[in-house]
Design goal:
This protein is an alpha+beta fold. Among the domains are: 64 residues, no CATH class; 178 residues, no CATH class. It has 28 helices and 30 strands. The strands form 11 sheets. A 6-stranded mixed sheet has the order 20-21-27-30-29-28. A 5-stranded antiparallel sheet has the order 16-19-22-25-26, with helices on one face. It has a 3-stranded antiparallel sheet with strand order 5-6-7. Helix 11 runs antiparallel to helix 12, helix 13 packs parallel to helix 15 and helix 18 packs parallel to helix 20. The longest helix has 26 residues. The radius of gyration is 28 Å and the shape is globular. The termini are far apart. The N terminus is likely disordered. The structure holds 2-acetamido-2-deoxy-beta-D-glucopyranose (6 copies). One 2-acetamido-2-deoxy-beta-D-glucopyranose binds next to loops. One 2-acetamido-2-deoxy-beta-D-glucopyranose binds next to helix 21. Belongs to the glycosyl hydrolase 47 family. It is found in: Endoplasmic reticulum. Keywords: Calcium, Endoplasmic reticulum, Glycoprotein, Glycosidase, Hydrolase, Metal-binding, Signal. Its EC number is 3.2.1.-.
Length: 811
């Protein structure tokens, strides 16, 4: 032990003196580390810097913003509810004139372990709401739930949990829970509709009184399903199960509105269940539906919710998963619907980490990091088609640049740092710490204004935004702090800690769970009658067990679409109309990787007197680091204000230290790929073996297979030259169909197909897709239909248009 400590001291000493004069040290703090060594001292330094930023903004809010909802960071005046125009929804949905910044930021103080400030803010909250939330404000139910109800519940958990640094003990009266309950009681009437789905807005004092039809006729899936999470927590803490039951009924009902592909359209009339927008995806309007299905399943140990998550996630992967992001698709057909993705979807990799899909989370997060490196923030919407104008010239006019970002603002949303935090916790790869440092530096330089933080009004011009939304203090800075605070008490908590969609940590102790089981009650007659009536209208049918019928139970046949690397507008238009757009030659990590855990001491050994550093695995072994730059080179165009900026991963000190010198980039594929879709009645069940093979015993559900056309001399999606040997000694003769080559001779074709992806799951190089001959066909007619689409040769390979698919086997 001693020996190791001495070695560390020597190391530290060396690093402090080894750098040249320009290397980034922090003399003002007297810290002893070299930048990007990421030792504990350095992480502590970043943690403290993040804390300083939080206090800077929090102090300013208290002095110049409170008791109003927000403080404007540039003009230093409160941003209030628009009292003059009650119909100004954009402002008034969130700003209920209820000091929302104060309430939403309570748990950031708790996470930072600042007991004295936490206690005084709890006192301030108590003093601010002597009449609870008896305020004449019409607000959005969802936003108010996640910011106010969630913020109060989580702060209450901290205040009452003796294992936490900010535990308030006897001095705390339970006031936060009372306030949360008061707010929930004011919001809950929004669920009293014929369907049981909530209307989006309600007046805190007089319920529906001043509300016009325009304010309540449309609600989205996230807003209808998500309050279940905070409200179920509230039931656990109060023993009153009405909160859980009413909101869970609405979640069930929302899920029942899904299409036969198990995809949820985003927008409905909550009073009738009529669908307004058929688009499905993972971004705005739907994001926290997935989030809370999984998080609720974990926190409440709820298998039904887990089933919803699994079905929803697998439908997404089949229909909406592209290589670097999820696209928005039509919920009944799975067809591509928009050519943009939105910034809110950047949360999804964090959720994938929670689901155990770290591999794909890394890919999806990579795109967000490229957006950040290009625009300096994440545009609210980004168009992935690219600019055709770039074919003719080498730079874009301002207007052309603007067209790449259909919505141009970036209000310092937290989703990128949130995913970065989860990925760091899962991989311990310094790649993610480095991103955190880049975000921290942007906050310190670009986004810090006189009185707080403001993002970009327009990422293409760098024009700042004079607004500090509450999530900057409650989420963005909290996740950044937690990224650097590796020893935070949350990281070693005994109970399952789950972050709400507003980053409020939630947990249940065994004692609370047991109390609730034995003491829960549901005696509020209004809501009892309401649920009873809703269930009666459902006709006793368990609507959430909706069965897929697949258009009368017939095989739909298949759709087939080709796609190309060069995505000019015509081609995208064509693929949009065909329904399946995609891109040529992309694949996931060829081999699942395992990551070492708990590696905080990065330097591993010292041979010949020099420290040997572990490498960042991503920087050194992920051979697709620059694929996005190449693939989207006509849309990831740096605006003027970003010209001088170096991408985070290429910053000198970081790259030099953490990249292995032999790191290679995979060459761009020159093959073409296309996808086929097969729809059959029943559910889709895939079995993935550890070596990457995918096996199926049944054919039901939707099967989407990506095929690569391989020819000698081309480079395949795995970055390899296609091996000419695989073209020899193949059989073309179809066992079932006479129309292919009539002579069953061995032949050497010029082109073959290879399956590279099924339902969003990548097949690694060498892996196969196998169907169980004895079980896949349920009826003779099903087999006949299948045989009409695919041929089969003597090697059990299925054939498409008489071309063998070399790794798609029916055996
Ligand atoms: C809004 O809040 C402020 C500060 O608490 C209060 O003085 C004012 O009366 C409120 N306005 C309305 C319309 O409720
Ligand atoms: C819920 O029930 C438990 C067990 O009886 C009790 O200790 C707790 O105080 C109750 N909570 C509330 C808010 O009434
Ligand atoms: C929601 O659906 C699940 C699964 O079908 C069911 O067990 C549960 O009782 C439903 N909850 C409510 C409140 O209707
Ligand atoms: C509902 O039940 C709880 C717990 O048993 C009780 O404290 C409360 O007074 C009851 N409320 C009504 C309206 O009966
Ligand atoms: C994008 O990449 C392609 C292929 O490497 C290249 O031909 C084209 O010039 C690039 N376009 C831009 C705008 O950089
Ligand atoms: C194929 O199905 C049969 C019948 O259910 C089963 O015995 C066999 O194990 C399956 N084969 C594979 C490879 O799963």
């Amino acid at each position: 032990m001693l020996c190791i400590i001495v070695w560390w001291l020597v190391m530290l000493w060396k690093f402090c003196w080894a750098g040249d004069a320009s290397s980034a040290k922090h003399p003002q703090d007297n810290t002893r580390f070299e930048k990007y060594s990421f030792n504990r001292e350095e992480l502590k330094h970043y943690k403290e810097e993040t804390k300083k930023l939080f206090y800077f903004a929090h102090d300013n809010y208290l002095q110049k913003g409170y008791p109003y909802d927000e403080l404007r960071p540039i003009s230093c005046v409160p941003k209030t509810r628009n009292f003059a125009d009650p119909d100004d929804q954009i402002t008034n949905d969130v700003l209920g004139n209820f000091s929302v910044t104060l309430v939403d930021s309570l748990t950031t103080l708790a996470v930072m372990g600042d007991k004295s400030r936490f206690a005084s803010m709890v006192g301030l909250v108590e003093a601010t709401f002597p009449n609870k939330f008896d305020i004449d404000s019409t607000v959005q139910v969802f936003e108010t739930t996640i910011r106010i109800v969630g913020g109060l519940i989580s702060a209450h958990l901290y205040a009452t949990d003796a294992s936490k640094a900010v535990y308030l003990g006897e001095t705390y009266s339970g006031s936060l829970l009372d306030l949360a309950r008061d707010m929930a009681d004011r919001l809950l009437p929004s669920y009293l509709t014929m369907t049981g789905l909530p209307v989006p807005r309600i007046n805190l004092r007089s319920k529906f009184d001043p509300i016009t039809i325009e304010l309540v006729h449309e609600n989205n899936v996230a807003a209808m399903a998500s309050p279940m999470f905070e409200f179920t927590m509230l039931s656990y803490l109060t023993n009153d199960s009405k909160y859980a039951l009413v909101t869970r009924y609405a979640l069930n009902k929302t899920w029942a509105l899904r299409s036969e592909l198990q995809l949820l359209p985003m927008s409905f009339n909550p009073q009738t269940g009529q669908c307004y927008s058929q688009i499905s995806g993972i971004g705005a309007s739907i994001d926290s539906f997935y989030e809370y299905a999984l998080k609720g399943a974990i926190l409440f140990d709820d298998e039904e919710l887990y089933k919803i998550w699994q079905d929803a996630y697998s439908a997404l992967n089949t229909n909406s998963r592209a290589d670097w992001f999820y696209t928005n698709v039509q919920s009944t057909t799975g067809q591509l619907q928009t050519v943009w993705i939105d910034s809110l979807s950047a949360f999804f990799p964090g959720l994938q980490v929670l689901a155990g899909d770290v591999e794909d989370a890394m890919l999806k997060h990579m795109l967000t990091s490229k957006l950040w490196d290009t625009f300096g923030g994440i545009p609210e919407r980004w168009d992935f088609r690219g600019s055709p104008a770039l074919d003719a010239k080498d730079h874009l006019t301002e207007e052309e640049l603007r067209s790449l970002v259909p919505l141009e603002w970036y209000p310092l949303r937290p989703e990128y740092v949130e995913s970065t935090y989860f990925l760091y916790r899962a991989t311990k790869d310094t790649f993610y710490l480095n991103i955190g440092v880049a975000i921290l530096e942007s906050l310190q330089t670009k986004f810090k204004h006189q009185c707080g933080f403001g993002g970009f009004q327009d990422v293409t011009t760098g024009e700042p935004q004079d607004r500090m939304e509450t999530f900057i203090l409650s989420e963005t800075l909290k996740y950044l702090y937690l990224l650097f605070d590796v020893d935070n008490e949350l990281h070693s908590a005994r109970d399952n800690v789950i972050f709400s969609t507003e980053a409020h940590p939630m947990w249940l102790t065994p004692q609370v769970i047991n109390n609730y089981k034995s003491k829960k009650y549901f005696n509020d007659t209004t809501y009892r009658k309401h649920l009873h009536a809703c269930r009666a209208r459902d006709g006793g049918s368990a609507f959430s067990d909706k069965k897929k019928t697949f258009m009368g139970g017939k095989l739909l046949g298949f759709a087939k679409s080709f796609f190309n690397l060069k995505q000019d507008q015509d081609q995208v238009a064509a693929s949009l109309s065909q329904g399946l757009a995609g891109i040529k030659g992309q694949t996931a990590l060829a081999h699942p990787r395992t990551f070492p855990h708990e590696q905080m001491c990065y330097p591993v050994e010292s041979s010949n007197g020099k420290p040997q550093w572990l490498h960042s695995r991503i920087l050194s072994h992920f051979d697709r680091l620059f694929e996005i730059d190449r693939r989207y080179n006509t849309t990831l165009i740096k605006p003027g204000h970003m010209q001088q900026e170096v991408p985070a991963l290429l910053r000198r000190g970081f790259y030099d230290r953490w990249a292995q010198k032999s790191a290679k980039s995979r060459p761009a594929p020159t093959t073409e790929s296309f996808e086929i879709v097969l729809d059959l009645p029943g559910e889709c069940q895939l079995v993935r073996t550890p070596d990457g093979n995918v096996h199926r015993n049944t054919l039901g559900g939707r099967t989407k297979i990506r095929l690569e056309k391989i020819e000698p001399g081309l480079i395949d999606i795995y970055g390899r030259h296609v091996d000419p040997k695989i073209f020899t000694n193949l059989r073309r003769k179809d066992l079932f169909k006479p129309n292919c080559d009539k002579i069953d001779s061995l032949y050497s074709p010029k082109m073959l197909y290879r399956a590279t992806m099924i339902n969003g799951i990548y097949l690694p190089a060498g892996a196969a897709l196998t169907l169980n001959q004895s079980t896949v066909f349920k009826t003779q007619s099903e087999e006949n239909t299948f045989r009409n689409l695919f041929g089969q040769n003597r090697y059990h390979q299925l054939m498409l248009d008489c071309v063998p698919i070399i790794n798609f086997l029916l055996q």
